[in-house]
């Protein structure tokens, strides 16, 4: 029991020494405050939050989320093929891919994928 307490005490002392050395060695300054602040789409975090917001950033974020969810839904298609009939699998995966392509074409024609306005 004494050995366990001595070991725990020594570990605590070593951790405190390491933390003190890191604090002394670290090169923090007032200029690093801007680097450690959260980045929100190019807005100044100190200014008013009621400034105008570009709709383009919002659309890009929504498109990213949609494609991200689509990838999560597409990945298990190969595993599902193993456990279902080929015709069922082909029809369901084809329908899913067609819906995705129609959505992509709609976004393309609405010019949501254009980076330059």
Automatic annotation (TrEMBL):
InterPro entries in the cross-refs: NADH_UbQ/plastoQ_OxRdtase_su3, NDAH_ubi_oxred_su3_sf
Taxonomy, superkingdom: Eukaryota
EC numbers on record: 7.1.1.2
Catalyzed chemical reaction(s): a ubiquinone + NADH + 5 H(+)(in) = a ubiquinol + NAD(+) + 4 H(+)(out)
Chief location bin: membrane
Any GO MF annotation of the entry: NADH dehydrogenase (ubiquinone) activity
Topology of the protein relative to the lipid bilayer: Multi-pass membrane protein
Residue ranges of the TM segments: 6-25, 57-80, 86-105
Enzyme class: translocase
Family affiliation: Belongs to the complex I subunit 3 family.
Record function comment: Core subunit of the mitochondrial membrane respiratory chain NADH dehydrogenase (Complex I) which catalyzes electron transfer from NADH through the respiratory chain, using ubiquinone as an electron acceptor. Essential for the catalytic activity of complex I.
PANTHER family associated with the record: NADH-UBIQUINONE OXIDOREDUCTASE CHAIN 3
Protein name per its UniProtKB record: NADH-ubiquinone oxidoreductase chain 3
């Amino acid at each position: 029991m004494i050995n366990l307490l001595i070991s725990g005490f020594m570990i605590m002392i070593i951790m405190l020494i390491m933390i003190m050395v890191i604090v002394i060695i670290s090169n923090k300054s007032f200029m690093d405050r801007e680097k450690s602040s959260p980045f929100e789409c190019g807005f100044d975090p100190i200014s008013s939050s009621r400034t105008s917001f570009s709709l383009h950033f919002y659309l890009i974020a929504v498109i990213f989320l949609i494609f991200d969810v689509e990838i999560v839904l597409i990945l298990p298609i190969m595993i599902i093929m193993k456990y279902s009939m080929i015709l069922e699998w082909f029809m369901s995966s084809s329908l899913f891919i067609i819906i995705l392509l129609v959505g992509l074409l709609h976004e393309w024609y609405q010019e949501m994928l254009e980076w330059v306005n």
